[in-house]
Design a protein that fits this description.
By secondary structure, the protein is an alpha+beta fold. About 30% of the residues lie in helices and about 35% in strands.
Amino acid sequence: MSTEVQNTTSSQHDAKLLVSGSFYRYDAVQYAVVDQWGDFVSPEIPNPKIELTKFNLFKETKKGYWIGHGNFWDERSLKSQAKWVSKTSKKRFAYPTKKEALDNFIKRNEKRIKILKRQLWACEIAVSNAKSMSV
């Protein structure tokens, strides 16, 4: 990953770099709609939107990155708002390129579909078994 070093500090445990850069994450979101009575409800036809979230890279360590929204000028707010992302993990919260983030979004949702299909199948079997029971 290409990053621009702004300032360097060191500690005994690991070297920390204040860097500039971005990380990305795609998520599918579906917003509620307002019905005729003014209540928020789920839409009749699913219409998810794919949204890209951009995170600022704040610190890089030997093993990962600290990312988050906005600028982290205050160390206390960093600890409450930042998210740590591993450099070596197969699954990460966010990725340094939009392509990697989109590929991960697709993999996450394919896995989710597989899990939900299996759960639906199990529910259908359970309902069928329940209907054949006598009380």
